[in-house]
Protein 1
Amino acid sequence: MSKYKEIKGFKVQTLASDTAAPARNLGQVYFNSGSNAFKVTQQLAPTGTWSSGGALNTARYSAGGSGTQTAGLMAGGTPPGTLDNSEEYNGTSWAEGNNLVTGTQWFSMTGTQTATIGAGGFTPSITTNAQAYNGTSWTEVNNLNLARYGMGCFGISTSAIVAGGANPGTSPERRAETESWNGTCWSEVADLNEVKHSLGRAGLTGTAGLVMGGDPTTANTEVWNGTSWTEVANMNLARGTLTGNGTSTLALATGGSAATGIQATNESWNGTSWTELADLATARYNIQGSTFNSSNTAALVFGGLNPGGVQSATEEWNVPLTNKTITVS
Amino acid sequence: MAYKYCTATNWGKNFFTHEERKQFHLSGHAGDVWVVGDNLYGDQWIGKVSGAIKSKSEAQAIVTAEIEAAQAAYDALSAEEQSRQSRPAIYNLP
């Protein structure tokens, strides 16, 4: 039986004035009774920019990154050696958190600042090890089936995906395998269409995600629907060791290393195609990001490596949102 | 596009803002060298961060020296460690 809402549609909200918090209303139509106009809150994607954020306490690259722009998390990485310390970002500055159980570089992490899962990497030898963070401390959890580093990783601590990666001890070295985490254990699911490592990623759950780029240098993008991978439109610039952010339909691909050198390039994904937007201030690769942002309008990147050495700089991405009048003729 | 060159240490939050990034070109390089769009807003930013103005050749020399040091550090790594990153390459500032 049909519900009233399905027959009559949704009620349009009436507001006395434009919303003061447009980020919460993105895509919402409303009636402004002050100006007698229907309006919609839109994202002005081409006008997004990067600003500086608080610097990491320990400059590093090939760390794990998770969380959001205002509640970020970073753990592991190098140098020197294999780091075990983690740092938490509050939107302004980084503070030391509790250490990993096992120091890891090339750690693939995803989730929120209070519910993160990380796996693989070097400890310093290549590992299947996986660790989870609950906002306070790290605990060892069940291992991956296949040891590797540089996987694309998205989701949260109860539902996540790792895909691709490389293991110098196996033949072939570069991998296409995908593993799904259900909060307890990893299981093998459908492979990527292309073998690659050091790829960017986006996605808030293990049932919908995106991987982009990777090494050997590729512009390829693949979408995960919970069952299989589908190749979609390529990035404009092929590159690996980049970072990603957002969801399978609204994402960013930032930084990395391309045939033309180390990149500040930033591209935005709208679910169909990639568009180049404003660059980072500091080009870098082996860069990390807090990727658990629900859109491509807010992001956080940090650390990495460029010809000047190991980076501690953080940059914050924001896209202005605006309330537009709907005009009918 | 015309640029100015300066050195300044990135102190973190608000070292450069979204608004400033819209107003002028800004890119960070090795040795705390910044390439800044040559306009009024760029000049104001250099003042805000107490940037030390450099000529292009001075700025390039700082960047090159930093990259040469990074190359030496890379060359001292083990083959396994080298395989996970690229040897830093000297490049020219815009």
Protein 2
Amino acid sequence: MKPRLAIILLLIVLIPLGLMVWLGFRVARGELATVKESIRKLHIEKLQDVEGNIRKVIQRRERELLELAGSVKEDPYSIRKLVRSQPALRQVFVLAKDGKLVHPAVQSQLSRQEEEFLARAGQVWKDQAVFFRPSSETRPSTAADSGWYSWYWGSGSHFVFWHRTAAGRVTGFELDRFRLVADIIAELPDTGLSDSAPEGGLLSLLDARGESLYGWGGYNPGAQEQPLVSLTLKSPLSSWRLAYFRSGEPTAAFGTGLWFNLVAVLLLAAIALSVLAAYFFRESSRELREAGQRVSFVNHVSHELKTPLTNIRMYAELLQESAIGDDPKASRYLEVVVTESVRLSRLINNVLSFARHQRKALKVRKTDGVVDEIVAAVLESFTPSLDSRGIQARFQAGAPGRVQVDPDALGQIVGNLLGNVEKYAPGSGELHIESRREGQTTVVLVTDNGPGIEPAERENVFQPFVRLSSEVSDGVAGTGIGLSIARELARLHGGDLTLEESRPGSTFKLTLSTPE
Amino acid sequence: MKSLVSRMTLIAGACALLACSVKAGQVDLKVAVSHPVMLADQKQTAYLRIGLTGLPVVEATQRAPVNVAIVLDRSGSMSGRKLSEAKQAAILAIGQLGADDIVSVVTYDNRVNVLVPATKVSDRHTINAAIRRIRSGGSTALFAGVSKGASEVRKFLSSDRANRVILLSDGLANVGPSSPEALASLGTSLIKEGISVTTIGLGLGYNEDLMYRLASASDGKHVFVEHPSQLASIFKREFGDLLSVVANEILVEISCAEGIRPVRVFARDADITGQRVTTKLSQLYGRQEKYVLMEVEVPGMPEGKSRPIADVNVNYNNVVTKGSVSLSGSAKVAFSRSSHAVSKRANTKVMVSAVEQVAVDNNIRAMRLRDQGKVAEARKLLLSNEKYLNDNAARYKNEKLRTWGAESGKDADNLSPEKWKSRRKQMREIQFDMAY
């Protein structure tokens, strides 16, 4: 009983705890993923902010250049003057409506800078269709338009902002790309000296080859370190990207906290459940102890009752045989005393057997004996009370041989069976008892003509303390352990006690292993 | 008689054409030709020299306010003596500035820190305390450092101020754009705004080509400092110069006369298109002379004739009186059959400048040869350059040329691997001084 209780209590603790661990783990993992995602979003937003600042530099440049575009004349002198005065510009070119290069005109006298420009701008002339393309399907190609164009030459990207007038003339401004970088750097934040910077990270602007143009923040990533997040810039800087580097796992600190909380909660739950389990254990073991004490008390009392009862019975029988027994009135009284003593001693035997059974101390001791003699003796002791209840017992004895049998056990079983008939089948007429020998076993059948037992209840009658709640048992006193003890004894005796199919009444079949 | 007449005409012409000097405001413009008299009937080469001299400011109160960004390298290699001397030098230099001057301090290693954003030098205490706190760090993001320095100067950019970035570096730029071309490009762009960069190379670890190109493209100055102890005096000199700036954003436009072909402009980044040549100078200090030297091809003319060479127009901002000033000048040459007359009338000052520029070209060529490992050829070229300088020093009785000649000789003796690293930096500094 106790180990089973311990296992149940352990399960009561472990199953919810396991469930909590599993759920907690899942929730924590989900939480961690959510946090990671939101941190990633935060970083992306940060990069988008920076991208916005870079965008501002480009837009400012666009505005300046659009303003300039209006004032550009085709006269080379004024164009050169413009290039000389504008820090952002490296070169300016002008294309006529038909795509012909007006400035710097190849056949004219060119400065060294203009010649260098023509050398690096070969790709531009190949792609010049982009300058003349209609800006959208709804707008004709004759509408004024502007845009960015970039190409790769030498060791890096070169940028052109172009503007097309309504008349179709295109002015292209080649930007000094290093100046552009310098302007963007000027717009971006610097790194404070004591700064461990944005949460120990590094924001870096990377060029087309992935080399850092500028970075700010207190963190120094390794040579091969991949950024946590990166963002490609918009045109015309689309070959560049912003990258955010950070030391270690960003959510590590958060994760540790989360796990710590989870473990703490689980620990608390485990403690609470254990306390609860311990409480239950204590309660139930106290109940068990108390029940045990009660059983041992009953046991004790039963033992104490047995001796005086035997004496009462013996003296009552002696009285029956003496002179007083001749008085019919006294003789009837004595018979009642004897019958009730027998019943009481059977009852006490049952209680003792049950108590032994509970202690696993119920035993069967086989000795030499004759089954028929034992059954007959029991039947004889029941005859007066059976008679008085209108039951006529008929014993068909068929096991007269000497065999190994426990006479007490057999007597108790048969007594219980007869006692039940006496109790539950009054006025049922004939009670048929039959014994026979089948090889090494002896079979005893007890058949009454009482109300019988419902098929559904057939096994239940053998459960201790089960008394069939029906008209059968109504108004009848009993302990509810008789059949249970009888079956237990039969089984200990290498046999069984079963309820056989029979109508009307009921037939109990007792099988005992009775070697010769 | 005829020869006398022609001689008289020639002298008169020479007097009229030899040199025309225009004085106005703070700058003195002198346009001169190397050979005011040229051999007749021959196509020849001549040098046109446009000399600009700053006139000293008489009253100290008149000086232009300075707008300077000090960009300090605080990379790991600067740690110790170098950084402490640099900090001390910067503090001393800022001490020379007045309350109306503007200063900013930018430090860089692999990151850039705007330590002191552009501010008036009224609260020296805070600025100095910030400088004292500088600690050395990691790599060298030189480009970003200059970019941030320039953007600080830009906050108070004015043609009435002496706008300058002073860059100190002791190491190779290794973060961000790091090629000499990239820095030259940045320099070219900065001078368009009137910002020039002084580059101070400290020790033997920096890239002198990069520092040279950045300084020359922005018409600044390049200095080689071998020992940290020299920093204080270099800063002092540099700031002293800045305090005496008299003219800013000097635009020189040369229109060559018909038939005259501009061949090249020495050292300076100039825009030559057809007959028109344009170049820009950043600043001019009081008593400082800067010049633009151009080689021109002059077609021959008959004896006795003369022809104009070029008209020169100079536009600058007078920082003392705060206003734009235009100067103009021109040069002509006469022709003679007498080679004696030609050489006798040669302009010594122009010739000395031409010799300097040719010698610089030779020196740079020799440096390139040495870079390619051609030590013997480099040595030969340097020795011939020494001789060239010394000969001309004697011919024009010019001490400066003699000094350069001696340096060229030293260059030739320091081509061995162990001495080359240091000497190359020195050569770069001397080339800069000779060329500008």
